[in-house]
């Protein structure tokens, strides 16, 4: 029997999709719009599932190689290494898939490309960098590894997360990211564009939040931007996000209506209701029946879904990856790669000469992370764990303590004890039980029962001690401590917000009312700080391993409020350094941290480094390898230097290394070496449309070293506010003592463009620029000036879109309609937007397209929002939310070019556009 054309691998992909699409019934096509795509047995189509987590190794499906977190991988500044990690991950995904096709799908949900605008974001460790270009090249490298090297067949199908402007967990489903056009086009979109345009990523997941008042899952940018870069791009929803369109977000009244709009906006796959597909598909069928959705809309979405399946080789006789099997999972080669990635990710933040370690026979390993490796929400299950203690113990004698307080808890009814079998905690015992107290920062504490070695958790409402540590989606093992009279405290469960109380039986359980909380006296029977200091004093060197727990005080669903190291951990660092001046602070965290002891002689940082962390740490500490890592994010002195967490306008708020005007604790790109480097002979020339720069880097030290040479530019004159510096390229070089290397940058002049709001496109201005080269964003060793011949932005004459202004105050960006367009709404009396250089020659009328629930007034002023000449005033009538009125005002034509302020005399006024008319 002859195979149908869609099974012919020699036929063009478009024709194969067309053939299969013609064979499917409408109901069968609808069945392909869910995460769990239904099989079509009559055509031989199997089931297909989107969504296998693979952020830094295969996750959630059992033991597999665990590589450093994404922020750690990026800190290597090594694109080939990142690609190889992606390739190893895809090998293991395929091995699991071949064993269990339904459990391990080939559509992988990685990498995360949201630029790390604010380090307080709970998911900071999932991203690569605060720089969009560096994020894009890292994501492209990782996605290339995931997709494989075969030109026509995908190994796995990488999915970029999360579109768009998503950096907060606080109320993430209901907050709207305020995104001016320049921030959209210069900062947010570039992180997505490169991996899509180059074919490395083949799918995108929209984010939970709204953008300028419109849910990201309904964004017109999906069709206008993403699919302009790759027409067959698959768009998959985030988990349960479609349901938010009517529930939390209330954007549409019914689910059929909401789902119809989502499909029309570009959503192809609904991750909703888990595997209960009929619930979601029923709403889509209702949308078809009600005329909200047409079959052609379904066909468009199904085409995208089928495109991925065809490119994965599902309908081919064979693929280049069919022979991958279980042997690759945690194989020696992947273990070696995990060790290499961890080693190259370490960043040496500070060093007074203590590192690399010499003449050391006994090391005190100290800290909550000294003998523990953490799994984060998107990591795999560790097949084995080489901790800091384990790695160092292979090199020298080690002594160890966690440096946590051992305490007792006593209520009015008597001491609290833990059940030896892991059951309920009970008050009223004759002798107090012992608990170890772990401080994870942000006021979050965990208690471990000494008798069982298990952590206190909440089972339903009862406190038990049966967990290996904080874990799970809903972490139920952490508590806050609230002061009560006479030196007592109340425990408040972080996850539920309930308090710990007791019943008549003495069992500790959760209660709703703070007045019912049991008052507990906490007595320290052994000080972790004192124990650590004693241990450190007797060692040649102290290695203090501190940091965060990836599931506590900052993770998906939870932002952090501070960048400070947990207070108890900070106290230990200070005490150990005083006891032994030869102290190395090793910070392990998924985000920047600060500490208070400024005299620690050496500080190393890495993200949580996976299974080979301890071996990698030992190699760096003892100088087997030069610390190669460099920061991909600014380390601030404190959160006080950051704008509001929900302020996405990095330009107006002077955020990220591009605009930050302060002196950071450690700058973007920072990282020390065990040797020294000199820079010389910078040359810059423009050849046609390409900028070429060269510089010579020399290792002036006595040992081999690795340098990451970084190129930045700054436009020195412009119509708009320009970045203080912007990364344009880098080169990682390995140099022997005395060796020199010439490093080069080739940059198309078009890359110097910024988004011109006056014409809605990128523009390269005629202007002087400065090219800088050095070791970080602030350690710039050489610079040279060059002139770019571009264009001069002309004065504005046409209709002025309200969202495309130059500056603003007290303004929120909102959706103009439920389908498309942006507008602005005033948040206070006197709010304003500014249009620079508006040509008013021959203009004497103005039409404002505006609306307000309460009515209001708009005044147009020249030159100043308070004292400038009032050109025109518009009364804004009361309207429904998306009902705008065109209000006309005449004015005495001032002639010439002016800065135009649109001043809102009331809050709650929405403005879509301003049309300047000619004089009568």
Describe, in plain words, how this protein is organized in 3D.
The protein has 920 residues and is α+β, with helices and mostly antiparallel strands. The chain has five domains: 322 residues, Alpha-Beta Barrel (TIM Barrel); 175 residues, Glycoside hydrolase family 3 C-terminal domain (Rossmann fold); 122 residues, Trefoil (Acidic Fibroblast Growth Factor, subunit A), CATH 2.80.10; 129 residues, Immunoglobulins (Immunoglobulin-like, Sandwich), CATH 2.60.40; 119 residues, Galactose-binding domain-like (Jelly Rolls, Sandwich). The protein is 20% helix and 29% strand. The chain is built from 17 helices and 47 strands. The strands form eleven sheets. Strands 13, 14, 15, 16, 17, 18, 19 and 24 form an eight-stranded antiparallel sheet that branches. A six-stranded mixed sheet has the order 1-2-3-4-6-9. It has a six-stranded mixed sheet with strand order 10-27-26-25-11-12, sandwiched between helices. The longest helix is centred in the N-terminal third of the chain and has 21 residues. The protein is globular and about 90 Å long. The termini are far apart. Belongs to the glycosyl hydrolase 3 family. This is Exo-alpha-(1->6)-L-arabinopyranosidase. InterPro entries: Actin-crosslinking (IPR008999), BXL (IPR044993), CBM6 (IPR005084), Cellulose-bd_IV (IPR006584), Fn3-like (IPR026891), Galactose-bd-like_sf (IPR008979), GH (IPR017853), Glyco_hydro_3_C (IPR002772). It comes from Nonomuraea solani. Keywords: Hydrolase, Signal.
